[in-house]
Amino acid sequence: MTGCVTTTLAERVAVIEIHRGPNNFFDEELLRELSEAVLAADESPDVRCVVLCSEGKHFCAGADLRQATPAGIRRIYRHAFALFTGRRPIVAAVQGAAVGGGLGLALAADFRVTRPDARFSANFARLGFHHGFGLSVTLPAAVGMQRALELLYTGRVVSGTEAQQIGLCDRLAEGDVRQAALGLATEIAGSAPLSLGAIRATMRRRLVADICAALDSEAEAQSALLGTADFAEGVSASIERRTPAFTGA
Fold it and tell me: Is residue 193 classed exposed, middle or buried when 0-12, 13-18 and 19+ CB atoms within 10 A define those classes?
């Protein structure tokens, strides 16, 4: 274990925190630790709800794609799948940016609490890449198919205020976003634990099945684009903070 993920207990709520600030990029090891923490919360009789949060400036700026491989992508998504299958409701506290895979991570939760100045972006096409982390399923479920297509095709940035308006997040916090998320999670944790587990299983049964299929399709599509010139250009442009010059190759 690298110690990138910790769990603390607060009034029947497990606060699972990512420690890779300021940007909290994820890799296979971090997703493994995160999935293990979520599944461990399932086994604790003291936990009825989970708050997913991160230290630093941003909730999660996605994956570091510079060393991505097809096998590595599939391993990451095996760990990511566990976030969708856990039995405890999850509330994500989103500060700063939730970008790319970070948006996928936020949408793996049942609810998202954010601030007006937060930023959400499915920026994959601006990197010459294909979206992942189950966004084929979770993004249309949150904002509708037409809005999801617009966000995926353009990669544009959505503010926290707009995110609430279009259904990308559930609550806005003017102050401490983590405390606001903990407040919602504590409210949820006041319900009967057996009921919570049964309701979540019923309501997410189709989602889990669709996510399983989507992760496989997304990994295949991402693997096919890893070796393209446009992907290399997209990553370079992102690092250099310039507009990419795509050629379709």
Answer: middle
Domain span holding position 152 = 1-175+192-249
pLDDT digits (tens, 9 = 90+) for 146-167: 999 999 999 999 999 999 999 9
Pairing of strands 158-159, 119-121: antiparallel
**In a 10 Å sphere around its CB, with 0-12 CB exposed, 13-18 middle and 19+ buried, how is residue 236 labelled?**
middle
Q: Domain count for the chain, please give it.
A: 1
Residue 184 covered by a domain: no
Query: Is 241 contained in some domain?
Result: yes
* Predicted model pTM: 0.95
pLDDT in tens, 18-72: 999 899 999 999 999 999 999 999 999 999 999 999 999 999 999 988 788 999 9
For residue 112, what is the domain's CATH number? 3.90.226.10
DSSP code per residue over 85-123: H-SS-EEEEE-SEEETHHHHHHHTSSEEEE-TT-EEE--
pLDDT tens string 198-244: 999 999 999 999 999 999 999 999 999 999 999 999 999 988 999 99
Tell me whether residue 186 is in a domain: no
